[in-house]
Amino acid sequence: MIQLRDASGRSSLAGSPLGSPADAASTARSVREMFGAVAPRYDFLNHALSCGFDLWWRRVTAGALSAVLGNSGSVAVDVCCGTGDLTFALARISRGMVIGADFCRPMLQRASLKLRRKARRGLRRQVAFMGADTLSLPLNDASVDVVTSGFGFRNLADYARGLTEMRRVLKPGGTLAILEFSRAQWPVFGGLFRLYLARLLPRFGAKISGVAGAYEYLHDSVSRFPCQKDLAAMLDEAGFEEVRYKNLMGGVAALHTGRKRG
Ligand SMILES: C[S@@+](CC[C@H](N)C(=O)[O-])C[C@H]1O[C@@H](n2cnc3c(N)ncnc32)[C@H](O)[C@@H]1O
C-alpha cells in the first residue's frame, strides 16, 4: 500500500474530503449536491477562473488519445463528465463512440443541452450521456477502449476503488487518462498559483456561483490530492502499465495515462 503525502508532508487523501471520511455514501451525496448547486455557472466559472486554459488541457488530453480514438470501432467513456467539455473534446477527434457518464443530474442536463445544440450545428459524432456512478459503472467487464476523467477523479469518495472500477471496464491494453489539478513545479509560479487557489478563487467562485464553500473545497481537495508521482504509483498498483504523466502549465494540472495490464 502506498503511503501518500502532500506538499507539506500531510498524508494525502484516499478520496474526496467532502462528507464523512469513512462513509463513501455521505461523500458521494455531498459531492453530488455541491455540483448540482454550481451546475448553472460551472462552465462559465471554469473558463473564467482558469483564463480558458481548461479548454486547452482537455484538448491536450483528447490529442494524447488520438491513436485509439481514430479507430472507427473505438468506445471511449468519459467518467465524471459533468457538463461534457472533455466528452466533446474526445468526440471531436473520435471516429467511434464516446459516452459521458456522471451521477449529478443538473450537470448531465447541461451536457445534454450542449449536445442538442452541437447536433443542430452539425456534430455528426456518436455521443451519448448517461447517469452513472464511477465507483459502480453499468458497463460490462473489458468492454471499452478508453476511460477518461477530467477534473472528476479527485472528487471520488475512494480513489483506489475508482481505479479498480475503471480498470474493470477497460479491455486488456485499454487506456486510462486522468486529467487533474496537481503540484505546480515552477517555484514562484507554484506559490502564486497556490495563493490564487487559497485566497482569490474561493471569493470569486462564491460570488459568481452563489454557492459558499464550493471553491474552498476546490482548494482543499487540490492541495491534498496525491502529487504526480503518487498518482502514477497508484495507477501502477491498480494494474496499469506504461504509466506516464505530462505536466500542464508547469504542473498546475497533469495528465496521467496508463494501459490496462494483462
Ligand atoms: C469538477 S467536475 C468535472 C466535470 C468535467 N469532467 C470537466 O472536465 O469539467 C466533477 C464531476 O464529477 C462528478 N462526480 C464526482 N464523483 C462522481 C461519481 N462517483 N460518479 C459519477 N460522477 C461523479 C460530479 O458530479 C461532477 O460533475
Structural topology:
Blueprint: H1 24-49, H2 53-64, H3 66-69, E1 75-79, H4 85-93, E2 97-102, H5 105-120, E3 126-131, E4 144-150, H6 159-169, E5 170-181, H7 187-209, H8 214-223, H9 228-237, E6 240-248, E7 253-260
Parallel strand pairs: 1-2, 1-4, 2-3, 4-5
Antiparallel strand pairs: 5-7, 6-7
Helix pairs in contact: 1-5, 1-7, 2-4, 7-8
The chain binds S-adenosylmethionine.
S-adenosylmethionine binds at residues 28, 31-32, 35, 46, 80-82, 85-86, 102-104, 107, 133-135, 150-152, 155-156.
Can you tell me about this structure?
The structure is a single chain. The chain is an alpha/beta fold. The chain has a single domain, classed as Vaccinia Virus protein VP39 (Rossmann fold, 3-Layer(aba) Sandwich), CATH 3.40.50.150. The chain has helices at residues 24-49, 53-64, 66-69, 85-93, 105-120, 159-169, 187-209, 214-223, 228-237, and strands at 75-79, 97-102, 126-131, 144-150, 170-181, 240-248, 253-260. The protein has a 7-stranded mixed beta sheet with strand order 3-2-1-4-5-7-6, with helices on both faces. Strand 2 (97-102), helix 5 (105-120) and strand 3 (126-131) form a beta-alpha-beta unit. It is globular and about 45 Å long. Residues 28, 31-32, 35, 46, 80-82, 85-86, 102-104, 107, 133-135, 150-152, 155-156 line the site of S-adenosylmethionine. S-adenosylmethionine binds at residues 28, 31-32, 35, 46, 80-82, 85-86, 102-104, 107, 133-135, 150-152, 155-156.
